[in-house]
Write a structure and sequence with these properties.
GO biological process, one term: RNA methylation
CATH architecture of the largest domain: 3-Layer(aba) Sandwich
Distance between the termini: 66 Å
CATH topology of the largest domain: Rossmann fold
Bound molecules: S-adenosylmethionine
Domain SAM-dependent MTase RsmB/NOP-type: 136-389
Strand content: 15-25%
Strand order of the largest sheet: 7-6-5-8-9-11-10
Number of strands: 11
CATH superfamily of the largest domain: Vaccinia Virus protein VP39
Number of helices: 19
InterPro entries: MeTrfase_RsmB-F_NOP2_cat, MeTrfase_RsmB-F_NOP2_dom, RCMT, RsmB-like_ferredoxin, SAM-dependent_MTases_sf
Family: Belongs to the class I-like SAM-binding methyltransferase superfamily. RsmB/NOP family.
GO molecular function: RNA binding; RNA methyltransferase activity
Mean pLDDT: 96
CATH class of the largest domain: Alpha Beta
Length: 389
């Protein structure tokens, strides 16, 4: 496909997404209907679609409209690509620009438009991030890095870099987070590469890695990962602390990959059903990596940024408080309860914690950190509570 044809395809997919279809499904359906598109074409179309979704508001302002065509026009204008070179009407290119489209004046954007956030989210974002609000929002307008955690039980950073290099995957050490690498070339080879297949590296964002490393966990502690999902935190806990990790999730099937991932990492992680938790001895540490809006990771799932509603955000807080309360029942007296989200909004972070502490005065907060999203890492919040009697 020519570059113009890829943009034309992106326009078509965006129109489907704007009609209400989730982004991933719209892209998969497009690829099924257009079998001639090779893997590079699919990756390019996907890249254009996600670039637009991350910057949908500013693209609409720069493209003077809200449909796929206007959004792609707005994207090109923001990225400095001459729209005339794409909207040529030749072959499978988008139709040439109309006179209206050609008469463009640079728009003046509101703060929320420039931040590419919904109007109602912007004040919450600013309250959560203070003087970092604008830079954090800008970071969510760009593609995320591909971050890896070196499994230090299986090898060193150097051995991981060498193994990746033998598969022609170039990686560099993260500037601030120990044991974290950023894959900078041939990222699509990772999953089949030796380093990943042998468990020497695992995909995990730098902010999650930094947070896990800071937690007060000792070798041999019994840790319950109460909201384990696919097991990203369970694997990091097992690798970093050599802890005995039990994984639980209210949706058991979400943990289906944990045994395979744990075997690859040579970690021992016990996966349990909700009804079996009561039969286990109480834990030294309980982690609640709770469901949330994902506002710190919106560059990865940009359509979620535009779908979130105020009611859903309040519902998240209610669920988070209830999860903390349920999970804390499995903690030993004096144990450590850790709460984390990949959100930067106080509604889901400090406010959730305050409600939990209000109803549970037998806990005190001993540490709290909001990791601000940057080009190097996602946003992440974590808070450590200790049982005091
Ligand atoms: C943010 S995800 C967890 C991500 C995972 N810890 C990781 O690092 O890959 C939140 C998980 O919480 C689970 N969940 C939702 N409500 C829950 C509840 N009441 N009890 C336990 N888990 C719950 C969801 O099924 C989801 O898998």
């Amino acid at each position: 496909m020519t570059p113009s044809a890829r943009y034309a395809a992106a326009i078509a997919v965006l129109d489907v997404i704007l009609g209400g279809e989730p982004a991933e499904r719209a892209l998969t359906n497009w690829a099924r209907r257009n079998r001639y598109a090779g893997s590079k074409d699919r990756a390019a179309v996907r890249g254009h679609v996600f670039d637009v979704l991350r910057k949908k508001r500013s693209c609409a302002a720069f493209g003077a409209g809200g449909d796929g065509r206007a959004l792609v026009l707005g994207l090109l204008r923001q990225t400095g690509i001459d729209p005339l070179s794409i909207f040529s009407g030749e072959g499978y290119a988008p139709e040439p620009l109309t006179e209206d489209e050609l008469s463009f004046e640079e728009p003046s954007l509101s703060e929320a438009e420039a931040a590419d956030l919904p109007d109602w989210v912007w004040p919450l974002w600013r309250d959560g991030l203070g003087d970092k609000a604008i830079s954090a929002a800008q970071s969510q307008r760009e593609r995320a890095k591909v971050a890896l955690r070196v499994n230090e039980r299986l090898g060193s950073v150097d051995s991981a870099l060498q193994s990746l290099a033998s598969d022609e995957i170039e990686a560099i050490e993260h500037p601030n987070v120990i044991g974290c690498l950023n894959a900078v070339s041939n990222q699509r080879r990772l999953a089949q590469g030796k380093a990943y297949q042998t468990g020497l590296v695992e995909l995990q964002d730098a902010s999650s890695q930094a947070a896990v490393r800071s937690w007060p966990i000792s070798t041999g502690d019994r840790v319950l990962d109460f909201c384990a999902g696919g097991g990203g935190k369970s694997l990091a806990l097992a690798a970093i602390f050599d802890a005995s990790v039990t994984a639980h999730d209210s949706v058991f099937d979400r943990m289906a990959d944990i045994p395979v991932r744990a075997a690859r990492a040579r970690a021992s992680i016990k996966v349990v059903k909700s009804e079996d938790l009561d039969t286990l001895p109480l834990f030294d540490v309980v982690l609640c990596d709770a469901p949330c809006s994902g506002s710190g990771t919106w560059r990865r799932t940009p359509d979620a940024k535009w779908r979130l509603t105020e009611d859903e955000l309040r519902d998240f807080q209610d669920r988070q408080v209830s999860i903390l309360e349920s999970a804390s029942k499995f903690l030993k007296k004096g144990g450590v309860l850790i709460y984390s989200t990949c959100s930067v909004l106080q509604v889901e972070n400090g406010e959730t914690g305050a409600r939990f502490l209000n109803g549970n005065p037998n806990f005190e907060r001993i540490a709290e950190e909001l990791i601000v999203p940057t080009s190097e890492n996602d946003g992440f919040y974590h808070c450590v509570y200790k049982g005091i009697y």
